[in-house]
Every structure is written in structure tokens, then in C-alpha cells.
Amino acid sequence: MPLNATIAAVTDRIRARSERTRKTYLDTMACAAAEGPRRAHLSCGNLAHAYAAMGDDKGTLTADKAPNIGIITAYNDMLSAHQPYERYPDLIRAAARAAGATAQVAGGVPAMCDGVTQGQTGMELSLFSRDVIALSAGVGLSHNVFDAALYLGVCDKIVPGLIIAAATFGYIPSVFLPAGPMPSGLPNDEKAKIRQKFATGEIGRDELMKAEMASYHGPGTCTFYGTANTNQMLMEFMGLHLPGSSFVNPNTPLRDALTVAGAERALEITALGNDFRPVSDILDEKAFVNGIVGLMATGGSTNLVLHLPAMARAAGVILDLEDFHDLSEVTPLMAKVYPNGLADVNHFHAAGGLGYMIGDLLNAGLLHPDTKTVVGDGLEHYTQEPQLKDGRVTYVPGTKVSLNDKILRPASDPFHAHGGLTQLSGNLGRGVIKTSAVAEERHIVEAKARVFHDQADVKTAFKNGEFTEDTIVVVRYQGPKSNGMPELHSLTPTLAVLQDRGLKVALVTDGRMSGASGKVPAAIHVCPEAADGGPLALVQDGDMIRLDATKGTLDVLADLTGRTPAPADLTGNGNGVGRELFETFRRNVGLAADGACTIL
């Protein structure tokens, strides 16, 4: 089928908008690649330092004829999603030796868990950690002794930060290796019900703790479809994973075999071989459009609306909120995975997963088929399914039909005709709303504002019984300049209880929600933020606000003329839990609509 006209038009618009920056980027990458393997330009003393600890691999390294892989790892054993990476370097080194090559851990990057910091002070470092990850990976690769890079990272800011680094070192190939989701535990809808009961005082902390431990119970990503698993989807749609590798559980034979196969493929695509595939050629306009289509078709995390513009900018590609909106309008919602449905990512994978979805979207003309990927030319490679045969990965054609139409449907018969992400604009600024899990009767909310400067104050007002009528809860001074833009996901149970009581409620904020937020309408990423002169700073309790997700508008129905911005005490945002170290980030961060980046 020919490419959808809107997909083509949005791609052309991005290409035109990015013409200057993309050319500059590609010229820079071509110049670096033309110099050949980087190690050839180092002195013997430089190389001796790099090879000193390599033992029996020294001979291979000094011969300078075989590729050397640089491993960038986000391993720590506090994050369930990253704990499996402890074993990966040994697997990769063994695979490289078997191929007559070498591999070294080039460096580690920090990896925060938003589940641990949710609602806590540490969350104020979360978004900025993405840029720290990019910087850390850059330091690791700066030694210039690597012919390709393998990136070990999964969760929320880690993959976007690693993509920024990979694009910056785009003159060498990059392959991303996932760790996979933990096996299914307590169903996510049951967990949500228990959280709401705790919010209303129906159960105690001991019962809540049992439920949470039953949900998050082993190595691997959390099984709901939040930012971490959305990242894994993106890496397949954008051609940076091996096909079908995203949702294979950790510590299984197939998972290990995919890790080995990823290392082998990285060796095959260096400048020393016959299939040179620098990542700068992969991360183009088409790849990012395909990624956004995947985001919409799966109902993925709103956090990627922040991350994708930053990731793209690192490769000279300029994205705008209108691109997300227009692509959402023509992309059908094909998956129902929690919070958009009851299934988790393991169920989604079993129903046909990404291979089925990519194949169906290609057949519908909703993806660019002719992209470059780490495994070859054309996205058709990603319709295949990996299997284990004699200890090695082999590929067979993936399913052409959904194996569970309550979880995964074809583009011709989707759950919704569009992806559910809408750009909002009006006299309160620009933002976005995700409606894929919001009931249609709640897509328009017009109600009095109740204004807060701290999410804890919202919970206190709820406990005091102060919400008795339809309300739009405004939580401002939550943008990146104010306090690092923490997620406000911990408000979801509170607002959901009010909604279940029959009230019409919505959230309006210059902050962000979690990729796991669902049924409560939330206008997020509103910019300019209150601390940057945005009109949210002028809103007062009792002002009527209209949020209309059907028309894409966000307006206060009051005259703001002559009002002065409400003062906010931000002095405490710079102290405690490491916040002192991030003052420069808060001062120099860009708009949320542009990716809230400090280094690009």
C-alpha cells in the first residue's frame, strides 16, 4: 500500500524544518567517519593505557585488524530493569572473542528509578538525569578506541540519554540491547484498585505494601506499558534493537542468545567490515516518524513527547508538537495494554507483539518501509520473530494475525481510530493530553480552578474533603526551570477517586505525568511554564478553565489583564538530595515543547 499522505506530509515538513541542522550534522559525521577507525590516530602510549588491563585480548587489540566494541552500561542492582545487565559484558566479551574481536566496558551511566522516587524529592533530578546520562556516555566513548558501541539501558531517561549520546557519536554503529520485562505478577488493574483504597483510607499500609511487592517482584522492567517499555518499542520501530527482542524475559536462554547475536551484529557493521552502518544514517527523519507512529499505535508514554524532540535534535532533526498531533490523528490505537487496558506487556508480546503490529502498519501504509536499521535495509526485518535453535537465534516470519484481539487488533479494526495524543493550545499556553485511556465523556471538562504549587497540598486538600464539585486542579511551578519537572503520577489515585465519585475533574500542569497515568484527563507539559513567564502563574482559585481535547484547546475563561504572577517560593528546590548540583540545569533548560534539554 502507498505511504499514507499525512505520514508523507509530516515527514516532508520535518525534513524541510531540519534541512540546515541535519546537513550540518551529517557533514560532521561524514568527516569523522572518513578518518577511518579512531584507534589508528592514537599514539602507542594512548593505546597502551587503553589495553593495559585486557589480558589475553591484548594481541587482538594491538593487531588493529579486528573491531573493538565499546559497552556503555546502565547496570545497577537497585533497578529491577537493569539488574540483568550485570552478566551482559561477559556474554558480549565471549561473543567478540569467538568472532576474533574484542569488547570493553567503555563506561557506566547513572540509572534512576522513577518508581522509587515517585512523589519524592529525588524525582526532581529525574528528567535532568537524561542529559547526565548522555554526558556520561560521551565521556566513556571519548577515548576513541571503539569501532562500534553497544548500549545497555532500558528505563525512562536512560534510553533517551543513550540515544543522544549515540547520535553524537553517530559516525560509529550503535546497537541497543534490552533486558526484557519481569514475568507477570499481580494484575495492574488490581494494583490500581488497591492504591485507590489506600488513598481513601479503606486499607492500611501493610496491605498496600503486599500488593506493590506482588506487582514488582523480580528482575526486568515493570510489566505495565509505561515509559520503560515504550522505550523498548521505540528501539524496534526505529531499527536499533534486534527484531523481536524487546519483550523477552530476563535470564532465559533466548534472552542470552539475543545478547550474543546483538554483539555479533555490532561487529559485522563496523567500518572494518563490508556492511558499515553508522547510527547517523539510521537516525533520520523517517526513523523518528516511525517511532512516533509506534508511540501512537501502542498508546505509549507521554514522557516520550519530551524525550523524542531531544533525541531527534541530537541527530539534527527538529520535531514539533504539531508532528505528534498530526501523526496521532492518522494512527489507529491497536493495543490495549495497561493503563489503556488490562493486559501487560507479556500478554501483548504473546498476542503477536511488535512484529505483528509493525507488519500490519506497514501493510496499511502507516510506516516508512525503506528505513535503514542495524540488521539491514527496510523495516520489514522487524516483522520477524526470534527463535532459539541449537543455542543460537534464528528468525521465522512473525504472525500475520492477532492471537488475542482483546489486546491487539489490526489497523483496519482498531480500538480507536487515532492514537489519543492531542496538542493543546490556548491562552494558557501549549501542552499535550493523552486520551487513549480517558472515557470520551471526559474529553471536555469546564470547571473552576483550584490552584496548588505542590502535589502534596493536593493530597492534603483531598484528605480534608475540600473537593466537592467539578474541579480543574492546577499544579503549577512544576516545570523544568522550577524544580526539574517531576512526574505527578502520585496524584493519579487521588484524582481517580474523585472521578469515581461522579465529579468531573482534570489536571492542568506545567509538569508531567507518568507514562502509566490513565483515566483522568491531564493537560501536561504546559509551556511557557509558570516560572518562565507562562500564564499559568496568573490563574486564581475559582477561575473557570475549559479543557477541550476534542478541539485541542486549553483556555482560562477569565480576564487575566492586569494580574501579576502569583509568587512561588522556589528557594527550597535547590537544596537536598543532590539538587544543589543541578542549579545550572534548572537555569538553562529549554522549553518542554522542545524537549526540556540543557545540552542541545
Descriptive report:
By secondary structure, the protein is α/β, with parallel strands linked by helices. It contains 22 helices and 14 strands. The protein has helices at residues 5-17, 19-34, 44-51, 58-63, 88-98, 114-117, 126-141, 158-168, 188-199, 205-215, 227-237, 253-268, 279-282, 285-298, 303-314, 321-330, 345-350, 353-363, 455-463, 480-483, 492-500, 583-588, and strands spanning 68-73, 102-108, 148-152, 174-177, 384-389, 392-397, 421-426, 429-434, 444-452, 471-475, 505-509, 522-527, 544-548, 553-556. The strands form 3 sheets. Strands 7-8-12-11-10-9-13-14 form an 8-stranded mixed sheet. Strands 2-1-3-4 form a 4-stranded parallel sheet. Helix 19 links the parallel strand 9 and strand 10 (471-475). Helix 11 (227-237) packs across helix 14 (285-298). The mean pLDDT is 94.
Could you outline the blueprint of secondary structure elements for this entry?
Layout: H1 5-17, H2 19-34, H3 44-51, H4 58-63, E1 68-73, H5 88-98, E2 102-108, H6 114-117, H7 126-141, E3 148-152, H8 158-168, E4 174-177, H9 188-199, H10 205-215, H11 227-237, H12 253-268, H13 279-282, H14 285-298, H15 303-314, H16 321-330, H17 345-350, H18 353-363, E5 384-389, E6 392-397, E7 421-426, E8 429-434, E9 444-452, H19 455-463, E10 471-475, H20 480-483, H21 492-500, E11 505-509, E12 522-527, E13 544-548, E14 553-556, H22 583-588
Parallel strand pairs: 1-2, 1-3, 3-4, 9-10, 10-11, 11-12
Antiparallel strand pairs: 5-6, 7-8, 8-12, 9-13, 13-14
